[in-house]
């Protein structure tokens, strides 16, 4: 089965200032789904109306980052911020419900400034587990799924708490792992995809190390990765979370080539269904 791709509106179409306009541009480019980080400043009703007009599904949203000015990027594992995390989670659930989104990326957060990772590891783990239990209970009531994303701390974010797939393996079925296609931390990407496949609820792609289009120069062989995901039977969305090197539409040649190689027309639908 061919893969389904989702346009990350926090990264693609940066020439357009508003999320609804980016969503409409993504739909015109053939995407059947979109995703975004926390959609600050965009009322839920506006985003939902744009999605309904374009007949596009909203596949994923993040929990709020906390206080960016204080260096925060999520709160789930940050000691002393439990009340703020729960308030943000409830806001994310309310927004997701309003726009028809069933998946929420629960952001773990960063090691607090001025502290040593090893010194606070135990306290952060305890906080993380407590908040995930609360999250699982809340999301199960909403028929939603929480996703966790390990972020590499060599290049992307040295202070992010959750940085390996082993560390991010959840026990509760309401929380699935989200996997960004990257070999920076662990290498052996194929083996990791196969090993953690039952826990993968969402995938995001970007070339390494430049984080541009999948067909830009880099270390990852995306045609092979796409074939591997198809062979594994992956049916979730593949989020395009990369920084376009230029115009977003011009950089989507890799996606059009993928559709053509699978005998699909613009938008990834079967030519036989036309």
UniProtKB/TrEMBL annotation:
GO terms for biological process: glyoxylate metabolic process. SUPFAM superfamilies: Xylose isomerase-like. It catalyses: 3-hydroxypyruvate = 2-hydroxy-3-oxopropanoate. InterPro entries: HyI-like, Sugar_Epim/Isomerase, Xyl_isomerase-like_sf, Xyl_isomerase-like_TIM-brl. GO terms for molecular function: hydroxypyruvate isomerase activity. The keyword Isomerase applies. The active site is at residues 149, 241. Residues 23-164, 198-257 form the Xylose isomerase-like TIM barrel domain. Keywords: Isomerase. Its EC number is 5.3.1.22. The keyword Isomerase applies. It holds the Pfam family AP_endonuc_2. Belongs to the hyi family. Catalyzes the reversible isomerization between hydroxypyruvate and 2-hydroxy-3-oxopropanoate (also termed tartronate semialdehyde). This is Putative hydroxypyruvate isomerase.
